[in-house]
Amino acid sequence: MLNLEILTPTRTILSEEVDEVSLPTETGQIGILPQHATLVTGIEAGLLQFRTNETWRKIFSFSGVAEVDNNNVQVMILDAENIEDINLDYAKKKLDESLEILNQAKTDRQKKDAEKGVNVARKRLYSLSLLDA
């Protein structure tokens, strides 16, 4: 078993034992099983999944960092959304809003921040497409 803890700056999203974790890292999805080697990795916005017995649960995570050590998986992210609470219309609306902010950005900093927002919105839509797969 793995001890999984998912934290944001303002709340603990989850703290329980699970059998397996799949993390959206900067280099792609990575699977974590018991006895995994020690690891520290960046977390990208995307689908964070964890399994207990045969049941997979999923959340949409924002960026952060994860540490794996001695069967403990600690995921520290900026925020998360319950994937079941995200509908297609909401995801499309967030993408449209993000694209509008990008189109109105004037400075390099504003453009960079807006591009991050567009990236998160696109990954949210992509994560929804994986739910039926």
From TrEMBL:
Keyword Ion transport carried by entry: yes
Example of a GO cellular component annotation carried by this entry: proton-transporting ATP synthase complex
Cellular compartment(s): Membrane
Protein's UniProt keywords contain tRNA-binding: no
Membrane topology of the entry: Peripheral membrane protein
Predominant localisation class: membrane
Gene3D superfamilies named in the record: F0F1 ATP synthase delta/epsilon subunit, N-terminal (2.60.15.10)
Residue span(s) of domain ATP synthase F1 complex delta/epsilon subunit N-terminal: 2-77
Gene Ontology molecular-function annotations: proton-transporting ATP synthase activity, rotational mechanism
UniProt keyword terms in alphabetical order: ATP synthesis, CF(1), Ion transport, Membrane, Plastid, Thylakoid, Transport
Similarity comment: family membership: Belongs to the ATPase epsilon chain family.
Protein name: ATP synthase CF1 subunit epsilon
